[in-house]
Amino acid sequence: MLRMENTFGASNLVPRDVSLKSPSRAEIPSRDMVFFDNWRGLSPLPSALKIRNRIQSNDMVEVLRNQTKMETHEVVFRFVDLNLVVKSGVTVTIAEGQALWLMRRAYTDVRVPEVYGWIVDSGQTFIYMEYIEGATVSSRWPSLIASEKSIVAAQFETFAAGGG
Predict the structure, then answer these.
(1) Strand order in the sheet with 72-79
(2) At a CB cut-off of 8 Å and minimum separation 6, what does 91 contact?
(3) Judgement on whether residues 71 and 49 belong to the same structural domain of the protein
(4) Angle at Cα 60 formed by Cα 56 and Cα 62, nearest 5°?
(5) pLDDT of residue 120
(6) pLDDT attached to residue 164
(7) 126, 86 in Cβ contact below 8 A?
(8) How many domains in the chain?
(9) What pLDDT is stored for residue 140 in this prediction?
C-alpha cells in the first residue's frame, strides 16, 4: 500500500539508479513464488497454509482492508507479532508485488513498504510486505484541499511516466 507523509509541498520524485522506462525481464522477479533475503524477523515468513490458519483462528491478526467487488475478494491483513502485512485474494496479482518492489528501489521520496516476497497458492496470491504506520492516500484524500490533491496527483503522474 502506498503511504503518504504528513507534509505536503515536495512534488518531485527522485528516481534511484533503476531504469523504469525499459527494465529488462531479468531485473524483475516474475516467478509465482519469490522470496527475497530482506526479511529480518525472528521466525521465518509464514506459509500460505499458516496464513490461512492464523486468519481463521484470528491469531494476532488485524484486518486492514476487506474489499469485495463483484465476485472478487481482496483482504489485507496485518500480523501484529511479525510486523508483517499480507495482501491476498484471487484478484491480487504478482504484478502488484513487482510494482511495489520496483517503486521501492526506484524512488527515494515515496514511502513504499519493503516487499519480502509473494506466492500463488490454490489460485490465490499472497504478497508479503512491511507494515508502515501511517495514513493511506485513500483514507486522507477526502480531507485534502485542492492544492494538496494536485500535489499528490502530480507525484503519481510523475511515477506513472517513469520518473519524468
Answers:
(1) 33-35, 115-121, 124-130, 84-89, 72-79, 61-69
(2) 69, 72, 73, 74
(3) yes
(4) 80
(5) 93
(6) 47
(7) yes
(8) 2
(9) 87
CATH code at position 110: 3.30.200
Residues 161, 86 share a domain: no
Cα–Cα separations (whole angstroms), residue 64 to 5, 73, 100, 102, 156: 19, 14, 18, 23, 23
| 122 and 142, same domain (yes or no) | no
CB–CB of 35/48 below 8 Å?
no
In a shared domain, residues 76 and 151:
no
* Residue 110 shares a structural domain with residue 162: no
Q: What is the mean pLDDT of each run of 10 residues along the chain (164 residues)?
A: 34 41 61 88 89 81 62 78 88 90 79 91 92 84 91 78 58
pLDDT at 115: 94
Q: Are 30 and 58 in a shared domain? A: yes
CB 75 within 8 A of CB 90: no
Structural domain including 154 reads 135-164
Q: Does 46 share its domain with 122?
A: yes
CB 45 within 8 A of CB 117: yes
| Residue 67 grid cell | 474489499
Enter the pTM of the model. 0.71
pLDDT score recorded for residue 21: 46
Burial status of residue 61 (CB atoms within 10 A of its CB: 0-12, 13-18, 19 or more):
middle
